[in-house]
Amino acid sequence: MTAMMITTLKRTNLRQGALNKRPIWNIIPCVLIRRLRQPNTYHVRLDEQHKMNQYKKKLKGQQGALSKTISSSESKYERSLIRKMASDKEIVQYLKESSSQDTSLYAAAIKRCSELKCPNSIIQIIEIVQSEHIHPDIIFYNMTLNYLGMWDKFNLQKYYFQQWFGKQQNQINHQLLVPNIITFNTMIKGCTKRGDFKQALYYLHLMIDKYNINPNLITCNSLLSVCANAHDIQSAELIWNKMIHDFNIDIDIISINSMLNVYAKCGETNKMMEILNYSQRPEKFISINEITCTTIMSGFLKANKVKELKLHSFIKLLETRYFKQKSNFVGFYLRFHPCNMFYVALFDDISKTRIEEKI
């Protein structure tokens, strides 16, 4: 499985001279460029046909401008009604009686049902959209997949993704909808919550190889979380190196915490501290937070290296940069650690040592 990830990620990394510095989604083969530069009658006809199609679209847009304005105001009113409804049954009944083709109305209904903690009604809304032969946009699909994931409806999330994007070959061109980076991030996030590394790798492979979409920061952070749950250091390190060197991604504290979590769950304290040191570089300083501290402490506990932690420079970092008062330090561990009283005693011992050193 790791070999498959390596093969997939390598396809996003073209290292040929000057091409190495260019974004991979902007690279066009030189042969294709030369062919495009050779004018012929066929290309001229295509150009004329394209201009005519654009002109027809413009006329159609002008003719429908008035009706669009009217329907937009009606849809806005209907969405406001949906937001005020107090039950999911009321929402579903309203949609069944409505003749609206505006997908934003159904998206608002899904959001409201989620707010009412009625995730099962989301399925009914999808069925209404399908039965009325409404053609949703990518925003509707992404929102639906997101709320299904929020309510741990992962099997349904996977099913609808396959239904909406897995049979594109049979769809008519004007109905073709392509998943975007938000779609894939939503699906990979769902894999993170259920620890399905194999399925996350499938979506990564699909977005890079089929749709030529480069992973962004959210994608990589989610993948690191999947690796942490799967205790897969090799794949996590591959993703981390790609984030730093190839994907042109600006590492943030979430990325740092995600990679720390990988090493913490595997008990790799030395590598964990290397990531912490990476975040504290003067040229690119990233401020740590409570999650950082929790993750590092749990990593030392996982590796049964509490004595090493006592002497580690990380404690000094906590004292000087994060917890300037003992009460804050104690309160932090009382909230986050089952062995919290041990850490309070540890802090007392460390503080005493610091005082003795100053004397």
Plain-language structure description:
- With 359 residues, the protein is mostly helical.
- The chain has a single domain (2-12, 73-164, 178-358), classed as Serine Threonine Protein Phosphatase 5, Tetratricopeptide repeat (Alpha Horseshoe), CATH 1.25.40.10.
- Helix content is 71%, strand content 0%.
- The chain is built from 20 helices and no strands.
- It starts with a helix and ends with a helix.
- The model is unreliable at 14-39, 62-70, 169-174, 324-342 and 350-359 (pLDDT under 50).
Strand/helix succession: HHHHHHHHHHHHHHHHHHHH
Give the count of helical stretches. Answer: 20
Which CATH class is shown?
Mainly Alpha
CATH topology category name: Serine Threonine Protein Phosphatase 5, Tetratricopeptide repeat
Detail the poorly predicted runs: 14-39, 62-70, 169-174, 324-342, 350-359
Distance between the termini: 57 Å
Largest pleated sheet: none
Number of strands: 0
What CATH architecture label applies? Alpha Horseshoe
Q: Helix/strand-derived class? A: mainly alpha
- Give the integer mean of the pLDDT values: 75
What name goes with the CATH superfamily? Tetratricopeptide repeat domain
Radius of gyration: 27 Å
